[in-house]
Design a protein that fits this description.
The chain is built from 10 helices and no strands. It is an all-alpha fold. It is flat, with a radius of gyration of 20 Å.
Length: about 230
């Protein structure tokens, strides 16, 4: 499929995702909140929004997409494994720091959120642990989107985003119908996200030439790519 078709079909799938979000917002989300309760849903939303502040990729993902597209256009495919190896090392470094932050936050949740009752703090700690550990696992894979964009796999990228929404709503609806509550909401979102990451990794390995070279470290590459948000082509 050529680039124009990829962009066109990817846009169509994006509109489908927008439509699904609208339907979910009007029908599914209010029902879900009613089933698990406003207080529990508030705890989930609080943990998710709080941890999202620490899930920044510092522009690395966007840079990966730009440089992969640049190297492919220039016929320098041999540079891609070096780029991905470098970004993987950076992500792992950031991920370790992120883990330390999560541990420190967890140990002080009762002080940070002093307005919560003891029972709410108890629930919040469980939710925070699940989402926090998943965030640590997910963080090194934030570049997957950039890789797919760099290889112009827009249809697949948009399709997996749509599939994630469908699976989340479907599994969550099933869990709620069986009278599961807050923890089911957290686990469903976590497991679906892990499934999507696995699908994307498998697709990239089978359908693209993207590979990692983690054995070489070139300081000149580090200076060239970092900080990514200020990098230029």
């Amino acid at each position: 499929m050529n680039s124009s078709a990829q962009i066109r079909n990817g846009a169509i799938i994006s509109y489908l995702s927008i439509g699904l979000n609208i339907i979910a917002g009007l029908l599914y989300t209010p029902w879900m909140i009613q089933k698990i309760g406003r207080a529990d849903y508030g705890l989930y939303a609080l943990a998710l929004s709080f941890l999202s502040y620490f899930m920044m990729d510092f522009g690395v993902g966007n840079a990966v997409g730009r440089y992969i597209a640049k190297y492919r256009a220039e016929g320098k495919d041999e540079q891609i494994p070096l780029l991905l190896g470098l970004t993987t090392k950076l992500y792992l470094l950031f991920d370790f720091l992120f883990l330390l932050v999560i541990v420190l936050l967890f140990l002080n949740l009762d002080h940070i959120f002093a307005a919560l009752s003891p029972s709410e703090i108890s629930k919040f700690e469980v939710v925070f642990c699940i989402i926090g550990l998943f965030s640590v696992v997910k963080f090194p894979f934030l570049s997957l989107k950039g890789i797919l964009i760099g290889y112009e796999e827009f249809v697949f990228l948009k399709s997996t985003n749509l599939l994630k929404k469908l699976l989340t709503v479907g599994f969550m609806a099933g869990a709620l119908l069986m009278d599961y509550g807050l923890y089911a909401l957290v686990l469903v979102n976590t497991l679906v996200s892990l499934i999507i990451i696995g699908i994307q990794i498998t697709y990239i390995f089978l359908k693209t030439t993207a590979r990692l070279d983690i054995h070489h470290f070139d300081r000149s590459l580090l200076k060239k790519y970092f900080p990514f948000r200020y990098g230029s082509l």
